[in-house]
Amino acid sequence: MDYSTYFTNHSTAEIAKDLIGRPLIFDEKQGKLGGYIVEAEAYVGKKDRAAHSFGGRRSQANEGLYRRGGTLYIYSQRQYFFFDIACQEEDEPQGVLIRAIEPAWGIETMVKNRHGKDGVLLTNGPGKMMQALGITSRNWDLHFLSDSPFKVDLADQNRRLPQEIIAAPRVGINQSDPYWAKQPLRFYVAGNPYVSDMKKRNYAKNNGWA
């Protein structure tokens, strides 16, 4: 299945859930870096108060969301960068934020990129993940996934299967809007230690993989 089809053929929430367990790889100057997606959040466009495109907001900064499904939307907050993939057809500004991966490739290099931080601290959050991959700019914003050094491996035989995928409210959503704050649009591997807010007491055997 190609990216155009994958990122437009289902609801954004269904896409976010289906990405769990799939490899995310960044292969540029430092060699192959990445891991298995363990946490992802769906943002469902103009009606979603938590989305950057809420109410039809459109600017140079969030243009990636308005492109066809499979386009990269890389944005920054403070010194951190975040990795989002546009979903749905052009001008329907929805997307999935990849929040965390379980490292699998290029771990030594990723530790260097994180200034020595390792273990779960290596990639257990969206900013940490991008720092581990060596992303320090929005250089790949607006690129289609297949025209970038990023790859999401959609081959089912390369996917790790979670024992359970949890659907929960998203992280850091303004509680003044209880409806969107409570929507179960964050998906993660139950008990995986690399999930951004996973407590040590909840770590699962085999990191929650089947």
UniProtKB/TrEMBL annotation:
Its EC number is 3.2.2.-. The keyword DNA repair applies. Keywords: DNA damage, DNA repair, Hydrolase. One of its GO terms (molecular function) is alkylbase DNA N-glycosylase activity. CDD domains: AAG. The keyword DNA repair applies. It is an enzyme of class 3 (hydrolase). It comes from the Bacteria. One of its GO terms (biological process) is base-excision repair. Belongs to the DNA glycosylase MPG family. This is Putative 3-methyladenine DNA glycosylase.
